[in-house]
Amino acid sequence: MTTPFPFTAVVGQDDLRLALLLNAVSPAVGGVLVRGEKGTAKSTAVRALSALMPALDVVSGCRFSCDPAAPDPGCPDGPHETGVSETRPARMVELPVGASEDRLVGALDIERALAEGVKAFEPGLLADAHRGILYVDEVNLLHDHLVDLLLDAAAMGASYVEREGVSVRHAARFLLVGTMNPEEGELRPQLLDRFGLTVEVAASREPDQRVEVVRRRLAYDDYPAGFSARWADEEAAVRERITAARELLPSVRLGDGALRQIAATCAAFEVDGMRADIVMARTATALAAWAGRTDVLAEDVRQAALLALPHRRRRNPFDAPGLDEDRLDRTLEEFAGDDEDPEPDPDTDPDTDPGGPDDGGGGGGPAPDAGGPDDAAGADAGAPPEAGAGGQPEDSPGAGAGSGERSAVRAAEPFRTKVLSVPGIGEGAAGRRSRARTEHGRTTGARRPRGALTKLHLAATVLAAAPHQRARGRSGRGLVVRRDDLRQATREGREGNLVLFAVDASGSMAARQRMSAVKGAVLSLLLDAYQRRDKVGLVTFRGSAAEVALPPTSSVDAAAVRLESLPTGGRTPLAAGLLRAHDVLRVERLRDPARRALLVVVTDGRATGGPDPVALAGRAARLFAAEGVASVVVDCESGPVRLGLAGRLAGELGGTAVTLDELRAESIAGLVRNVQGASVAPSASTSRRAA
């Protein structure tokens, strides 16, 4: 058995360690979501916590870890005899990102259930984690339906498995811990809210602390048992402190003054719903117990707010989590209650934690971005109006490749876009964009199962078994079912796609108002991609070449950051942009062949630079049409004279052209339901109404 890295040997990361310990004291806090860059001891700290959890008394032979003092009356292994128990360490169960629904909640033996009427249930990971820790690494990459099941079980304290009228329920109370790297994509806001606490972690920039991290890690790797033995006393002290805090917790008093501060803080920061108030109250109570006090003080409320509120203030995926601590202090001071101790004992600091040097970090996450130098430059109030089609051409002096690069402008306000979807039926990862065969959705038919049966089609199974009843010697009322009779339900739902943006950043797009509108449109499509669980990528082209500004990723906020800082100017290498996008899709098809792509080209259709650039761009576009890649061209051309170049490009791509105005969901004239594939004739798929 591998010796875990000692919890008390983790250097720094005070907020992370405190949040984990508070949940160990009071699992009712609701778990921890740990967000941070790679290599910051997220997984190490979580795995180390399991060694500190107090041992459990369990009913002997119970697969669901029932407490012998209060066994679950509905336990599938019950009823339990009294006095038959054993003691074992608390478990830490890891949920793999690629786990199936049956692996998470358990599975029924459908064949025995139909043929014998027996509830033959095989417990899943939720049963294993009961009264322990359930750890989900890269929780942001977990399929939505698994996250929903997981969080429902965490909220209700029970797991339900229901298949074709057969139902099994068992207790599932556990400490839920998730870790994630925001660069790989975000969780939906409503799922963020289901985690009690969230901690932002980052590697220290202090050389001495980094040296200590390396020294301890090397010592552990050389001799894990010996390294752990050196920290045994500190581990035992923390374990005893957790036990003492658990015993003290029922005696902690949450006074009216502290409750008023909690309510006022949640109201002041405009947190949706009441879950934040409840989590803050439980966290403040756990903080007091951890500090050995029976009264909740203002300092407990403040620390609870820093841990429980930052992730609940996000209104969209591009908002940085964080809390204005000055505003928090003003609110707490304004609503200080009479039952508060104005001068708390400094010896009872709830942040005190044995083991590891103090890195001085105390916040509940970074403050919102104050904005960079581009913020001032992005204001459009004093910007000159955009030149029309009769204005200065790209190749004229002062506008070509030799002209100076124009600074980035701010994106216009995002809006709700039309639904752009890939035609046909795919089999990619679950999402919300295009039609696909999925494990969840409406039933469209039945087939023989490939591997384990997951979704039984009852009617098809009965029809397959019925003709053979006499040959199988059926004598009673029951149906004789064989494994060959079982039929898997085929279901149709929605999949997530790869939305690859190819954005023209050349001189013809450089007018401030136009580029602001273009960035606003792309930002709107990125928000739509976030909501539909897509991967996104960003290719830009300007000057003499194209570049991959962002390789395909699930992090749409990373794409938004790259988009915001995108400068403009120079010629329009449209062919180079399309060829670079083609290379990106080719590589991504090898990595994830089931995920279908949607190419979104944002341009006015102009092409300059080199001999016959328009013909070269047309040949590059026909590569996508030949491979059946779904595409849409967002036509950014404006002015009284319109050349229709973007529509012509859409014809070469075998896709559809849509103007910026038609992209809005409120627009009726430009309704876009499906992005036409290459199989549709260009004359039908590229016609565009005159303005």
UniProtKB/TrEMBL annotation:
SMART domains: AAA (SM00382), VWA (SM00327). InterPro entries: AAA+_ATPase, BchD/ChlD_VWA, ChlI/MoxR_AAA_lid, Cob_chelat_sub_put, Mg-chelatase_DI-like, Mg_chelatse_chII-like_cat_dom, P-loop_NTPase, VWF_A. Residues 498-675 form the VWFA domain. Gene3D superfamilies: Magnesium chelatase subunit I, C-Terminal domain, P-loop containing nucleotide triphosphate hydrolases, von Willebrand factor, type A domain. Residues 334-447 are annotated as: Disordered. The keyword DNA-binding does not apply. Keywords: ATP-binding, Nucleotide-binding. Residues 357-366 have a biased composition (Gly residues). Residues 335-352 have a biased composition (Acidic residues). The keyword Electron transport does not apply. Residues 367-387 have a biased composition (Low complexity). Belongs to the Mg-chelatase subunits D/I family. This is Mg-protoporphyrin IX chelatase.
